[in-house]
UniProtKB/TrEMBL annotation:
Origin: domain of life: Eukaryota
Claim: Aminoacyl-tRNA synthetase is one of the keywords in the record: no
UniProt xrefs under Pfam families: Sulfatase (PF00884)
Gene: ARSJ
Protein name according to UniProt: Sulfatase N-terminal domain-containing protein
Species in which this protein is naturally found: Electrophorus electricus
This protein's UniProt keywords: Calcium, Glycoprotein, Hydrolase, Metal-binding
Assigned protein family: Belongs to the sulfatase family.
Limits of the Sulfatase N-terminal domain: 20-331
Keyword Metal-binding applies: yes
Signal peptide region: none
Length: 379
């Protein structure tokens, strides 16, 4: 990825904010095994370094499918409370994240953050109020659906029913489309956002990569690294992960180059487990994406930040994707309302300082609590 331009600071904004920059990376369908530090044959030097010098979340859980996980990240509420517990939101389905839910970017925006999203939304778009720019993001560039061609950005839901899915703001981004591989394109866009923002003011950047979801497409130069993998799907998938790792390297270098790094919290998370039928691996966990076995809901995750009190550690506290909402809002000096009925907890002390879980987190470990949650899901 090339250098994305010169940083111009607005005049009169020289005093740094005490609020940390929040960089949240969501990747799609990355298996628990599919990162170097979990013993994979896939080479991920950047992810390994970011995790090793931060805090590895080794007891981290999400939902088994895309839309439910993303809804929980955006609202801090279990998907059973937003009506998104059944499956993903389909391209022709008139549904979206319910508008009465105050989203994470809305909360951070109220706290003074500039909010930007690059990448995959997949929380509905059937009416204007569902669009990312109506849900708290100042800018949006990416796809509204769950998957599509990495180069043409077309998605076919059924034979003869195809649509172009690359958007900027609320319009199709025809003029932005140069046929660039989406992992590279989203990285370039994220870097341009960082280059044009004043690092003395807080930013929330949500970078939701399409990778490594099917279809298995990747520039040929990445395939050269994995000639020894006999399975063609696994070989392509491994190459896609390597491309993603390179994107994370370029992002990290940009955060340093443009002055964000020293006051930054970066969270990395997969939205669900890997799909073995599309090259992914969750070994030694049982199950896959779409199942409630560990392989479907236990995710790759870590936090990287100079602001962590204890770095180079493993956090084994039970962390759930709903926890990012109260954790990040609190870190950003925002406010949480009592009537929001959040299911997540502020887990920053457990992550940063290695403190034992709070009483709320301890209650989660109670088998009765988990049983009630499962019963509630199936009713």
């Amino acid at each position: 990825v090339a250098h994305c331009g010169t940083l111009h600071l607005p005049k009169g904004l020289d005093k740094p904010s005490s609020q940390p920059h929040i960089i949240f990376i969501m990747v799609d369908d990355q298996g628990f095994r599919d990162v170097g530090y979990h013993g994979s044959e896939i080479k991920t030097p950047t992810l390994d370094w970011l995790a090793a010098t931060g805090v590895k979340l080794e007891n981290y859980y999400v939902q088994p499918l895309c839309s439910p996980s993303r809804s929980q990240f955006m609202t801090g509420r279990y998907q059973i409370h937003t009506g998104l517990q059944h499956s993903i939101i389909r391209p022709t389905q008139p549904n979206c994240l319910p508008l009465e839910n105050v989203t994470l970017p809305q909360k951070l925006k109220s706290a003074g953050y500039s909010t930007h999203m690059v990448g995959k939304w997949h929380l509905g778009f059937y009416k204007r109020g569902c669009m990312p720019t109506q849900r708290g993001f100042d800018t949006f560039f990416g796809s509204l659906l769950g998957s599509g061609d990495y180069y043409s950005h077309y998605k076919c839901d059924s034979p003869g029913m195809c649509g172009y899915d690359l958007h900027e703001g609320e319009e199709a981004a025809w003029e932005q489309d140069q046929g660039i591989y989406s992992t590279s394109m989203y990285t370039q866009k994220a870097l341009s956002v960082l280059a044009s923002h004043n690092p003395k003011r807080p930013i929330f950047l949500y970078l939701a990569f399409q990778a490594v979801h099917s279809p298995l497409q990747v520039p040929a130069r990445y395939l050269e690294r994995y000639k020894s993998i006999p399975n063609q799907q696994r070989r392509k998938y491994a190459a896609m992960v390597s491309c993603l790792d390179e994107a994370m390297r370029n992002l990290t270098l940009a955060l340093k180059r443009y002055g964000y790094y020293d006051n930054m919290v970066m969270v990395y998370s997969s939205d669900n487990g890997g799909q073995p039928l599309a090259g992914g691996s969750n070994w030694p966990l049982r199950g896959s994406k779409g199942t409630y076995w560990e392989g479907g809901i236990r995710a790759v995750g870590f936090v990287h930040s100079p602001l962590l009190t204890k770095r180079r550690t493993r956090c084994r506290a039970l962390i759930h994707i709903t926890d990012w909402y109260p954790t990040l809002v609190t870190l950003g000096e925002g406010t949480l309302d009592e009537n929001q009925s959040l299911d997540g907890y502020d887990v920053w002390e457990s992550i940063s300082e290695g403190h034992p879980p709070s009483q709320g987190l301890t209650d989660r470990l109670n088998p009765f609590t988990w049983s009630i949650s499962l019963i509630e899901f199936y009713i």
